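The step that takes the researchers longest sounds almost clerical: writing a folded protein down as plain text. Below is the pair of lines this work produces for a single protein:

——
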Amino acid sequence: MEPAAIIETINITKKYGSQTAVRDLSFQVEEGEVFSFLGPNGAGKTTTILMLLGLTTPSSGAATVCGLDPVRNSRDVKRLVGYLPENMGFYSDLTPLQGLDYIAELNGIPADVRSERIRRSLETVGLTEQIRKKVGAFSRGMRQRLGIAEVLIKEPRLMILDEPTLGLDPEGAAQLIELIRSLNKERRMTVLISSHDLTQVQKISHRVGIMLKGSMIAAGSMASLAKESLGIEDGRFSLEDIYMKYFKEV
């Protein structure tokens, strides 16, 4: 039996006046996989994510997320999907405990289960020892991990991360990627990532989709894309090699 598609789009297009941000995009993300969007700024990655979350409406085409239409059922989609945007906003004068409790309340999580979910989430992201520290004093890496903790308290089926390693030093980026890998492996969390960080994406992605000028110009496992674009089958390739090959041909 083939894995179920947790995300599916059919020819979705998004236009802003005369500008087409996403053009006839069709792809699937299977339950339990890590799928990464790659592409330069303006390629349509973030616009696609906003359509999947029901935060903007496609000009044409259709999408389903967790079996739901994000246009008609946006509130239900948001209950099932955890989203970490590129620039996550935090209440800098609150501690992680206070901030997560507030987010949990906003998400309708009953008071009798909040404390345990918050404890587990902070433990998962490695912030247990920072619970009484004001978030305003957190480093960029700590804030990213706190953002993932906010996602996890919802116990989502799908996690969408927009540029999660942006602005992190190499050690911080590696730690965050390892956290995402463990969530995927141990909880079978489905993850959709939008990123420029090809080195880190290669470490965790089951499949990638390369976007340019609003279109997905290639999608598949890195091995299949290496064979298709570079004629290489022995594993001696990097995601950067694949990306640049497709990028130059378009």
Q: What stands out?
A: The chain has a mean pLDDT of 90. Strands lie at 5-16, 19-30, 34-38, 60-65, 81-84, 158-162, 190-195, 207-212, 215-220.
